[in-house]
């Protein structure tokens, strides 16, 4: 065999051996980040439910998250994550559970934004729609309702849905999400708190259906 051809074949073999390691590393990163989001989701739910025991347990877990994923996310995201955790603790000490929930939701989104999108089993919009539902609920738990913030997150969520919709063939899922965002839009315009909460709840429930669809 000619030396140049042998060198080329050896190089190709090394590359093929290296590629699975790269994919494994990216998948491991996503798995670690998904695991890191869990305590923030739990904390947001406990805070909105007023479950002090659950809050105390979850907040201790969230404090450990930045150390565990500091090599997996950007410095800016790590700084933001620590800032949200600090705000969560301050809000908890002041008894402002709505702010605990809101900062938990933003911490969740900070981690989601660091996912290796190309290695996901489903479109990243699915996870963002989950964030949208959580954030609407968190905004509705604030002492002062910001309709501007609510309108902004509804519009942002609708854009996410419109980009995801062409990837779905299930007509029931498409019709349901179309209705959800019509409801969210109508509720923000009419400032209907109950309707807004309910539509966001349906959004969260339907995210489970989206996950099942793509899996």
Would you mind describing this structure in some detail?
By secondary structure, the chain is mainly alpha-helical. It folds into two domains: 17-118, IL-4 antagonist (De novo design) like domain (Four Helix Bundle (Hemerythrin (Met), subunit A)), CATH 1.20.120.660; 121-215. It is 81% helix and 0% strand. It is globular, with a radius of gyration of 21 Å. The model is unreliable at 5-25 (pLDDT under 50).
How would you sum up this structure in a few lines?
With about 220 residues, the chain is mostly helical. The protein contains nine helices and no strands.
Query: Helical segment tally?
Result: 9
CATH architecture of the largest domain: Up-down Bundle
Could you give the order of the helices and strands? HHHHHHHHH
CATH superfamily of the largest domain: IL-4 antagonist (De novo design) like domain
How many DSSP-defined strands? 0
Strand content: under 5%
Rg is 21 Å
- The whole-number mean of residue pLDDT values reads 89
- The quaternary structure here is single chain
CATH topology of the largest domain: Four Helix Bundle (Hemerythrin (Met), subunit A)
Q: What percentage of residues falls in helices of 4 or more residues?
A: over 70%
Please report the distance between the alpha carbons of the first and last residues.
Answer: 47 Å
Overall, the morphology is globular
Computed structural class: mainly alpha
Biggest β-sheet strands, sense, barrel: none
Poorly predicted spans = 5-25
Domain module count: 2
CATH class of the largest domain: Mainly Alpha
